[in-house]
Design brief:
The complex is a heterodimer of chains A (374) and B (429).
Chain A lengths: L4 E7 L7 E7 L3 E6 L4 E6 L3 E3 L9 E5 L5 E4 L4 H8 L13 H33 L2 H19 L9 E2 L2 H15 L9 E5 L6 E4 L3 E5 H6 L3 H16 L2 H20 L5 H4 L13 H18 L4 H15 L14 H9 L11 H8 L7 H5 L2
Parallel strand pairs in A: 9-11
Antiparallel strand pairs in A: 1-2, 1-7, 2-3, 3-4, 5-6, 6-7, 8-9, 10-11
Helix pairs in contact in A: 2-7, 4-6, 4-12, 6-9, 6-10, 10-11
Chain B lengths: L21 E3 L1 E2 L5 H14 L5 H15 E3 L2 E5 L3 H28 L4 H32 L1 E3 L2 E5 L3 H17 L5 H14 L1 E3 L2 E5 L3 H37 L11 H31 L1 E3 L2 E5 L3 H42 L5 H48 L1 E4 L1 H5 L13 H4 L6
Antiparallel strand pairs in B: 1-11, 2-3, 3-4, 4-5, 5-6, 6-7, 7-8, 8-9, 9-10, 10-11
Helix pairs in contact in B: 1-2, 1-10, 2-3, 3-4, 4-5, 5-6, 6-7, 7-8, 8-9, 9-10
Classes of the chains: A alpha+beta (374), B alpha+beta (429).
Amino acid sequence: MIGQSWAARYSDGRSAASRPATAQLDETGLTVLDENGPPRTKWPLEEIRLIEKPGAAAEIRLGRAESSERLTLLDRAALPLLQRQCPFLRRAIYRGMGRQRVAFWSGAALAGLAFLFFVGVPFLARHSSQWMSPRLEADLGRRVATAVIRITARPGKDQKRECTAPAGQAALAKLAAPLIAQLHLRNKPRLRVVNSPIVNAVALPGGQILLFRGLLDFAEDPNEIAGVLAHELGHVALDHPTTVMVERGATAFLIGLVVGDVFGISAIGAIGTAALSASYSREAESAADAEAVTLMEGAGYDLAPFAAFFARLEAKQGDGELPIGFLRSHPPDAERARLIAAAPAGGGQALDMRGWRSLKAICGRAHAASDSEQ
Amino acid sequence: MAIERLEPGWRGGPDASGGGTRLRVGFDARPGLTWLLIKNFLLTIVTLGFYRFWARVRVRRYFWSSLRLADEPLEYTGTGLELFIGFLIAVAVIAPFGIAYVVLKRISLGNPFATGALSAAYFAFLLIFVQLVSFRARRYRLSRTAWRGIGARQTGSAWRYVGIFLLTGLLTVVTLGICAPWNSIACQRYKIANTWFGDSRFSVEAKAKDLLPAWLAVLALLVLPAAVAIGLNHAFFSAAAHVQGQAHPVARVPHPGAFLLFLVTIFAGIPVLIAYWVAQFRYLASRTRLGETRFHSAARGGPVAGRVILVGLALVAIFIVLAGGLAGVVAIAMKGGAAGVTASTATAVQKAAAIKSLALVILPAVIGFYVLIVMITQIIAYRFLRLGVLRHLATTLEIENFAAVEQVVQSSTPRQRFGIADSFEFGAF
């Protein structure tokens, strides 16, 4: 079969003209001859490329590697022979850019993004609460709190999303006052109880602290609630809520960008809900724990019940009965219990019996029985 | 040879326009596009979106080679890697602005003035960025386009292009849309006049005022019914208020005629705008030259608009059918599962298991629904919309004095030597 020739059309890559030609294949390459004339050029076998998949077309379009020459064989029957003879028939005709340029430019782009991700975003996040006026931060917190309450509240019949029984609120204020008095905050903390079975509490920007009813139901001692409050106040004092919100937004934007949401529209829409999934790093949690211990001691509250609280919480989580909660990403409870237990013992009750009962009943009738069944 | 494909009889015979040879652009869509789109879609999902650059290259290769001049296809020689790196560079450029916007937006939340100013600034940035990138992406695509081995390319400055766009855009805004043709013609003119095939440069003699009558007719068709509808509505309300003897009528139901007029305006507006777009294409093509070569387009708005409407209706129908199927699956699963969840004899563990199995049915159904919708939309958009429109525009395009095109010489600027911008055009995606 070698030595076969076909009718063809040839473009020399210098002009867009196409002239009739004859193509001859032998062991060394493909020779292109002018129609009934002298040879024009010879393509080595390893430089022959297919320009497009032949499909059902009657013609075979060939090109020469790294060149603008084109050759169209007018006989489809040439294909099997070409496939046998040409080792790189299906490779791309142009090699594309050099590896060094690929490495340099993709490296530069990735380095820029990495810098933004690991240095730029954390820097912005850390300082954003300082650049905000207290009034704006309080406003931001109120908006986020409204969103969180709307999503998490599961009020019973004839109940509100937020629990505001006056006696309970008075008890909560009394319990929190000695803790808050030790802090110098830009915004006065605002403590709110959400009618939701979640066993948790969350600190939001602008000093908004949400306690969920499930936590009050689960707690067996006022000092447990005081401990949780002190922990959340620690987050507030250390500016964690605003930092994490900004960090989340920027990170979501970056990830959206890389995955294909070029203008980050999806991230911009997620302002209120970002706080919901906010989880702090272990360092932030430990810092808030340390702050909590200081605040509890300063207020003269006994820490022992707070330490026991974590052991009970871990037991409950072990049952798998805890609704998906924010505490999940906190440091292991046993470890925290140890940290808190290491603090000097002693101190008093955060609330008397009457105050404690009022606080437990802040959402109306007791829910403890109905929730434990879930 | 090109000469054999001449179609005598077009506008006064072969010699009427002096050039001699005329050629109709050919279109040959080979089978396999649907399968290619499905494969691309699945691979893009599996790779979390990263395959999309390589997918785009394969689709472009298909589209380019379906266009034929003298029975020889256009070639697309770009690669997925080039698009990917171009994308990375673009992301690295946008990201600081985007992050600044996201962060500042959070900080300024609650202050309407600051938020508004911020949004306006970001919008302006995006507006400029999109124009910049679209010009440069065109340059990249042309640099990866060849016919008979002779490459195309684009010169000109992207910033200058943005300047033209912003200035004429401002004119359009100030004149309440009346001057829109100046915007589109100025932008197209700059792009076409900076386009090269080999060493031969395109030129275009287009005047916006030639399109003004057509554009004013479009505006009148869109604005007048809307104005009448608003007027009707207003009269209706005043009358209602008068009858009831109070300023605010109790029932603020729109006037039925006005409502109908609004609907008609919106649904008629789409084909009217498309027809205008096709008319502009026809006008520009007929005013474009490549050396001694001229072009003539007989594209019609009807087939293109009809196709857009048909595809839109088909998508709505498919969506309804699929959504119905999803609702059915969810309803059946809920009916079966709900019995297990609410049964009073069931223990907590049994209830949890019932909820879990319910989620196992509903979740895949919802995900499957979403994936199917996106895939079908993509396939229809490419297979029936873009390909169909391209076919119509191509097969109605005639090239006068094609012999001059065949004499074009390869540019002396070699391939891939136009600087870094060219190999992974910033914004090449």
